Amino acid sequence: MVTTPHLIQRFNKETRDTFTVELKPSNGAFHFKAGQFNMLYMYGIGEVPISISGDPFDKQKIIHTIRAYGAVTSRMANLKRGDMVGVRGPFGKHWPIENLAGRDILLVAGGIGVAPIRPILYYILANRNEYGKVTLLYGERTPGDLIYRGQIEQWRGRFDLDIDVTVDSAREGWLGHVGVVTTLIPRIQLDPRNTMAMLCGPEIMMHYTILELQKRGLQNDQIYISMERNMKCGIGFCGHCQLGPKFVCKDGPVFLFSEMKDLFRQREM
Amino acid sequence: MEKAEKILAEHPFFEGLDPELLKIIASRANDVRFEAGQMIYREGDEADQFLLVRDGKVAIEIFSDRGGSLIIQTVGPGDVLGWSWLFPPFKRRFDARAIEATTAFALDGKFLREKAEEDHRLGYELLKRFSRIVVERLQATRLQLMDIYGKHS
Predict the structure, then answer these.
(1) In chain B, at which end, N or C, are there fewer CB atoms within 10 A of the end residue's CB?
(2) Do B153 and A204 touch (CB under 8 A)?
(3) Which of A180, A185, A187, A206 to mutate to test the interface with B (most CBs of B within 10 A)?
(4) Contact A182/B67, CB-based, under 8 Å?
(5) CA of B117, closest CA in chain A: separation in Å?
(6) At B47, is the pLDDT very low, low, confident or very high (cuts 50, 70, 90)?
(7) What count of other Cβ atoms lies within 10 Å of the Cβ of residue B131?
(8) ∠ CA(A58), CA(A64), CA(A69), 5° rounding?
(9) How confident is the model over A46-60, as a mean pLDDT?
C-alpha cells in the first residue's frame, strides 16, 4: 500500500510526552475496526506503526494518540495543526468485540496501551445493551501521565461502566489507587465463566496481568492481547515483526492468548 | 465479641482459620473509623496493632524533605494495613493516611505476639498469612520499580 498525505486538523498535547493527532481522511471517509493500526510517515524522518485510538463509527476523523518514545515519534511531538503526515492503513486484526455480545468485558490497559483500548469502549457504548458488565482497569506511572483524563472522568460517572485507574506513585492530593495495574484485579467483581478480557500494554505488564486473571479463573481462550513488534511493511511481507510462525502486523496485533502462549515472552524470539 | 469473630471470619485475611484461634484474635479486636485526610500512623510510631480494612481507602506514604509526601501504595476493603508489629524494632516504617472515610478492625499486635509465642499454631497461621501479603507486595513493588509502562519495559 502507498502512503498518502493527510492533513492534521487538530493537535492536542495530552501529557508532557504524549499527544493526539486528528487527521482528515484523504478520501473523505476512513473505515477501521478497534485494535487496528496505521503506519504513519513523518516526511524525511521515518515511518512508525501507531494504533488507531478514535471512534470506529466516526468516519470523518483518523485519531492517533502517540507517546514520544523514539526518533520518529519525538519529531511528531512537534507537529501542529495544518501539517501533513503520511498514512498507510489500516492494518492488522482487530479486537473481536462484535462477536462477544452477551459477555462481560474486562479491559486492562497499561500506559499508552489505553489508546488502542479506547475504540473498544466507543464500540461498546454505541451498543451498550449487547454486553454485560464492562470494566476498564488503567495503570500509569503518575497522575500526570494519565491520558484521556477528562473523558475517563466522564465515563466513570456512568452507571454502566466500571473504571478503575491506578498509578505507580503519586503526591499528596491524589485520591485514586496507587500500585501497578495488576493489583486492581483481585479487587474487581468478575464472573470467570462469562468474562472476556482484552489487554494492551507492555508485554511484561500483560504477562503479570494474565497471571492474575488466571488466578481469578479465566482461561487462556478468554484473554486477548495486543502485541507490539517492529512492524515495517504492515502486510506480512518483510518479516520485521515475525514472531515464530506469526507476523504481528498481519496475524495480529490482536491475538487470542491461547494461540500465543507458547510464543509470548519467549527469549530469543 | 461474637460479632467481631463473625466479621473476622468473613475477612479474606482470616479465611479458613481455626475458630479457636479466631476467638483469641477477636478477643482484642476493635472497630475503628478514620475520616478522609486523617493520619492513621506516622513513621517512627510504635507498631502495636494492625488493621483489617473493611471500607474506604488508605494511602501508605513516604515523606521526603524535598518532595513532601509520596504515596507508594493504597489499600482498600479486604486488605491488611501494617506488619511492623511482627518484627523488631516494632516501629512504623511509613505514614498511613485515610484518603476516604475508612472503617477497619484494629487488632492488638503486641498481644498477638505474646500469644503466638505461647501457641505456635497461632504464630504459624499469622506468619503464613502475613508472609503471603509481604510476598505479594514485594512482587508488586518490583513491578513498580521496573517502570512497566515505560519505554524500556
Answers:
(1) N
(2) yes
(3) A180
(4) no
(5) 33
(6) very high
(7) 12
(8) 170
(9) 95
Q: Cα separation of A157 and A137, whole Å?
A: 15
Indicate yes or no: CB of A112 within 8 angstroms of CB of B149: yes
The secondary structure of A33-68 as a DSSP string is -TT-EEEEEETTTEEEEEE--S-TT-TT-EEEEEE-
Shortest Cα distance from A22 to chain B (angstroms)?
A: 24
From residue A79, alpha-carbon distances to A85, A120, A191, A218 in Å are 9, 27, 45, 43
Angle, vertex CA A178, rays to CA A172 and CA A184, nearest 5: 155
Q: pLDDT tens-digit profile of A180-209?
A: 999 999 999 999 999 999 999 998 899 999
What pTM, to 2 d.p., does this model score? 0.90
- Separation CA A103–CA B141 (nearest Å): 33
pLDDT at B1 (0 to 100):
53
A6 part of contact set with chain B, CB < 8 Å: no
Residues of chain B with pLDDT > 90, as a percent, come to 76
Chain B residues touching chain A at CB-CB below 8 Å: 57, 59-61, 67-74, 76-78, 99-100, 140, 143-144, 146-151, 153
* Among chain B residues, CA nearest to A140: B149
Confidence band of A267 (pLDDT split at 50, 70, 90): low
Residue A171 to chain B, least CA–CA distance (Å): 5
H or E element that contains A87: strand A84-91
Give the pLDDT band of residue B151 (cuts 50, 70, 90).
Answer: low
Tally of CA atoms within 13 A in the half-sphere of A196 that contains its CB: 19
In angstroms, the CA A149 to CA A145 distance is 9
Whether B68 and B130 have beta carbons less than 8 Å apart is answered as no
Residue A177, chain B, CB below 8 Å: the answer is yes
For helices B19-26 and B120-146, what crossing angle results, to 10°?
80
Most B CBs within 10 Å, among A178, A185, A187, A189, to test the B interface: A178
Tell me the chain A residues in contact with residue B73 when contact means C-beta distances shorter than 8 Å: 178-179
Query: Where residue B2 falls among pLDDT bands split at 50, 70, 90?
Result: low
